[in-house]
Amino acid sequence: MSIIKHKDKRTGITYVYESKSYWDKEKKQPRSKRTLIGKINEETGEVISTDGRGKKRTEKKKTPSDNTALCEEMKHQLKEKELLISQLTSQNKALEKELATVLKEIRCLLSRHKERE
Q1: For residues 20 and 3, what is the distance between their CA atoms, to the nearest angstrom?
Q2: DSSP bridge partners of 6
Q3: Which of 7, 40, 90, 107 falls between 20 and 30 A from 75, CA-CA?
C-alpha cells in the first residue's frame, strides 16, 4: 500500500490517493486500486479528508428527529402558502369583477358619445 499525490491540471487541486496493489490472475499482471483520501490544502500542506467523491465529509448525519422537525416546518410553510394562495385568488376575483364593471361603463359612455355625433 502506498500514498499517491495527483494534481488536477484543470483545477490546480492536488488529490491524495491510497493505492493498493494486487495480482490479476486473468491477465497475469500486477494491478492497483486507488481510493481517494482527500485533497491537499495549498496554504498549510495538510490533507483535507473527503467523502470519496471530492467533497468534504459531513460529520453529522441527519437523525429521524431532524427529519420530523423538517417535515413539520414544511407542513407549516405549506399551510401558509395555501392561505396566501386563497387570499390572492379572492383578490383576483374581486379585481376581475371591478374590471368588468369599469369596462361596462366605458362601453356605455362610448355608445352615448357615438349617439351624439
Answers
A1: 9
A2: 15
A3: 90
Task: Report the alpha-carbon distance of residue 107 to residue 114 in Å, rounded.
Answer: 11
Classify residue 57 as left (phi > 0), alpha (psi -120 to 50) or beta: beta
d(CA 40, CA 35): 15
Task: State the residue for C-alpha cell 470519496.
Answer: 52
Which of 28-32, 35-39, 81-85 is least confident? 35-39
pTM to 2 decimal places: 0.43
Q: How many angstroms separate the CA atoms of 11 and 54, rounded? A: 12
pLDDT given for residue 51 in this prediction: 73
> Measuring CA to CA, how many Å separate 19 from each of 7, 22, 24, 108, 110?
16, 10, 15, 87, 87
Residue positions counted in the chain: 117
Q: Is pLDDT at 36 greater than 70 in this prediction?
A: yes
In what side-by-side order are the strands of the sheet with 47-49? 2-7, 14-24, 29-40, 47-49
